[in-house]
Amino acid sequence: MKLYGNSPSPYVRHCRIALIECGLDYEFIQADAALSEKLSPMQKIPFLEYSLEGRTEMLTDSSSILRYIREKAGQKFLPTVAELNDFCAVNTLIDAQVNLFLLKREGLTPESVSYLKRQESRIQTGFQEFEARHYSKQAPWTDVELRLACFLDWVRFRKHFSLEPYPVLSNFLEGLDEYEPFLETTIVDI
Ligand SMILES: N[C@@H](CCC(=O)N[C@@H](CS)C(=O)NCC(=O)O)C(=O)O
To answer: Is the predicted pLDDT of residue 10 greater than 90, yes or no?
Structure first.
């Protein structure tokens, strides 16, 4: 199978970690905006190509990709409603931060666009919510934890904002820093 994406994307990284955890062979293909526009109707990364009964099928969202990977390895993906809700909540925060990041490159900031202030505020209240939770101290990490860790590491790598006001989340992230699949997918700039 072929996974298209880049190293910094938290969505892509989570898929790569799941592929490593499940011991599945895959080819990682670097995809920039031009390639994703050409190959995926969603024009986003990640997307996955795999063969099914001689046909090439495509998955265009990290959630369906993760479910495919986990099921292929006989594992469950987000087995409870609470986990699904937390997973969606982390995605909401990542989407908000991606939004802020991409628009900043175009010169649009929360100072000039009030909707971006709302995005910033959403990230703050979301972080407060996740700061109040309890996390595993070691593997196996849940898919909610892996998604959150990929997001936190991206925030740390890009210096979007300081994680200092969030000691629980910072400790949680440090706990994954030595985790082999996390290390193997360490963010490199593009
Ligand atoms: N819901 C999608 C979100 C993927 C996503 O937003 N990817 C970003 C990179 S981190 C992207 O491709 N953005 C390009 C754009 O928004 O045009 C998923 O879970 O796969």
So the answer is: yes
- What's the domain range around 132? 81-184
pTM greater than 0.90: yes
Block residue for tokens 């990542």: 94
What's the gap in Å between 4 CA and the centre of ligand 1?
A: 12
Q: How far is the CA of 11 from the centre of ligand 1 (A)?
A: 7
Question: 81-105: per-residue pLDDT in tens?
Answer: 999 999 999 999 999 999 999 999 9
**What number is the average pLDDT over the span 112-132?**
98
SS3 string, 106-148, reads: CCCCCCCCHHHHHHHHHHHHHHHHHHCCCCCCCCCCCHHHHHH
Please tell me whether residues 102 and 45 are part of one structural domain. Answer: no
Q: Which residues line ligand 1 (CB under 6 A)?
A: 9, 11, 43-46, 61-63, 98
Give a yes or no: residue 163 inside a domain. yes
**Which ligand 1 atom lies nearest to the CA of residue 60?**
20
